[in-house]
Amino acid sequence: xxxxxxxxxxxxxxxxxxxxxxxxxxxxxxxxxxxxxxxxxxxxxxxxxxxxxxxxxxxxxxxxxxxxxxxxxxxxxxxxxxxxxxxxxxxxxxxxxxxxxxxxxxxxxxxxxxxxxxxxxxxxxxxxxxxxxxxxxxxxxxxxxxxxxxxxxxxxxxxxxxxxxxxxxxxxxxxxxxxxxxxxxxxxxxxxxxxxxxxxxxxxxxxxxxxxxxxxxxxxxxxxxxxxxxxxxxxxxxxxxxxxxxxxxxxxxxxxxxxxxxxxxxxxxxxxxxxxxxxxxxxxxxxxxxxxxxxxxxxxxxxxxxxxxxxxxxxxxxxxxxxxxxxxxxxxxxxxxxxxxxxxxxxxxxxxxxxxxxxxxxxxxxxxxxxxxxxxxxxxxxxxxxxxxxxxxxxxxxxxxxxxxxxxxxxxxxxxxxxxxxxxxxxxxxxxxxxxxxxxxxxxxxxxxxxxxxxxxxxxxxxxxxxxxxxxxxxxxxx
Length: 479
Ligand code: ATP
Ligand code: MG
Ligand code: MG
Ligand code: MG
Prior knowledge:
Layout: H1 3-16, E1 20-21, H2 46-49, E2 59-67, E3 69-70, E4 73-74, E5 88-97, H3 102-116, E6 124-129, H4 141-148, E7 156-159, H5 161-164, E8 165-167, E9 172-183, H6 187-192, E10 206-219, E11 225-238, H7 239-246, H8 259-269, H9 277-298, H10 307-326, H11 338-345, H12 350-354, H13 356-387, E12 392-393, H14 395-405, H15 409-418, E13 422-423, H16 425-442, E14 459-463, E15 475-478
Helix pairs in contact: 3-4, 8-9, 9-10, 9-13, 10-13, 13-14, 14-16
The protein binds adenosine-5'-triphosphate (ATP) and magnesium ion (3 copies).
């Protein structure tokens, strides 16, 4: 089944259950000082849940463009390293605003996955909230009882407050959730270790696809919980992950959502996917990031030096660096991918078609200017090499290069190694640590799906820099 068909099947199914199908809200948020990018389908419905406005329909479904690169949901460092987290992805969702509740939400999710889409029941696991003594919250027996009508009881697993209790922020609507996980391992591997043991273990082949949130409480300012008069349902399913399952693939990147882009990257960079892990990571990063950047530009957010624009600029630069370092691309090339992307996604998201020229030109210019910066960094590096006393460059200098020119340390390390030099890594790390402490002291980080800033100072996101999965540096500075 093609991805476009999968998207339609989801929407048609919920339309048949009397849901109104609405368009995706923009991915870039302009009117909410607490959130830069849409990170979940429910964002655009926040005011309904808070009771500040009334929806035109009590049942809604859509596919929402999401971006998870900052705050509570920051998946950036996973992207490319694993096969199922993206920066930009589509979240399919259905909502009940004071209308249906657990029985229908669970029943329809099951009907869609197993009957309409034909997923093998033996590959599915579900989780329910196990309760939390400290909060005085009970296990979600109601969800359990609905699930056990549909699925064997040993496939219904308990989940902790961390995974199975959703909160909007420090205050507001919240409630237990129930997640659906799919085991995509071979029958042989499934026989070795039960899939139940791998749920919530971040296993690349036992992945969460759908989260059903049941909003039934309100968290008050004093931290206590009260029952909501009207109960709501908020669900989110990862579209690319669903495609992976239905197309019988082991990676989102092997679905037709990504393969046309990957083929184009192979052609443009004269590399091939699936032979060398480093090259593969770079190709995945580029295929992912070009989507995030293109969708953002289509929403009107160009790369810039502040706020959301800077986040987008850093994402694009990250892609450029991966191309520069691992695919040996010293010339702009990412802009060449927009044709393929627009062909692939333009029907579902017509804004890509209408903004195609802008997207292409902006990406090309950004690539040109960042490659020049990289060139300047190379000149400085050359100076460091010629003036070095021994074979080791000081970590502080490498840090300066990184901090001022956005020159990633592994790129520096690579170039130095080629010339028979190295740099003092612990000095670099200690400079980095100092800087992290400075930024921590100076800034705050988004922590919730909404986070009301305590004072009126603006935060400028000044980026994250690392090509390594194990270092996550998110820097904020007050301006
Ligand atoms: P995970 O535990 O895999 O990080 P999550 O629990 O953070 O996912 P939710 O906030 O529950 O995700 O979002 C609903 C659904 O959106 C998930 O079940 C998943 O299918 C999908 N999803 C979440 N994050 C990503 C991502 N970075 N890329 C692609 N799909 C995602
Ligand atoms: Mg997550
Ligand atoms: Mg999860
Ligand atoms: Mg989840």
